[in-house]
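Throughout our pipeline, every protein is held as a single compact record rather than as scattered files. This encoding replaces a full spatial description with a residue-level series of whole-number codes. The remainder of this section carries one protein's record, kept here as part of the documentation.
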Amino acid sequence: MATTNGEYVIDLHHVEKVYRGKVHALRGVEMQVHRGEIFGLLGPNGAGKSTLVKIMMTVVRPTRISGTLLGRPVGHKPTLRRVGYLPEDHRFPRYLTGRQALEFYAALAKVDRRTRKRRAAELLTTVGMSDWADKKVSTYSKGMMQRVGLAQALVNDPQLVLLDEPTDGVDPVGRREIRDVLVELRRRGTTIFLNSHLLSELEMVCDRVAILVQGKVVMQGTIDDLTAQSRRYEITIQGAAPDWAQGDPSIRVEVLSDGQSKLIVQGSEPGPMQPILDRLRGERRIICAMEPVRETLEDLFMRAVTDPETGQVLQPGARTNAGARGPGKEA
């Protein structure tokens, strides 16, 4: 678990970005990231995720912003030396080897020569690229580029790491290895900010998440907190549900196609389930399964991007000042 102590590594307020054509990519973003946690930012294409990351890294100039990064105002250049950054679709000079690329970026971050050589060797091993360390970047696959990109984001031993789609193009083995690296970084106290479309990846490693839709944060918190209302127990039994269950307003009954029935009871505590189980056993019912269920991160995401009034999924992209969806380029 994250070592949250009330201190915000990222504390953003009123973040706005209006592009030419009055396209509102970000519309008053409010977001807080605790020290020592893995924080996931998710949202559909065009929601403004990459724009927000680029604003924090001073790559994009905001229209309006208030807040801090590592305790200093966003845009404070010396603070960026304590931040690691992996952009989406990053590029390294193709004539460099992986080792040379890491040492080059470490030098840009003012890491001394002896330390950057040591860090480059260690990180290439960490991301599984030691056998390719002295091969040219031009020979790397996309997944290999992502591995070296992650290593590049860590060469300055940062306190905060911003990763934009870090597992894009990486095979399942590589994704697991990257997750292990992130968990180890968290254990050491590093704060990690992840921007990703892979919801299952985020669900496995993130302490908290925020969902960005059309330039606004619509949900933020731990996955447990955000899915609390969806928590329930599902009891599957052989045959039809008993009459008392069908008449109980606290129990929802579903008839399954294989001759079984499912009793669904809202709540996360196991205590209220015991009388129901006792009654089923007393009637010599065959209980096939009982399991706690909650929304997945994908379910939560779909709820966030669905208009509650129309039931339609919101279209990707930012909004113009008139409210129409604009052709925002950031993802």
The two ends are 29 Å apart (CA to CA). The chain has two domains: 8-223, 232-293.
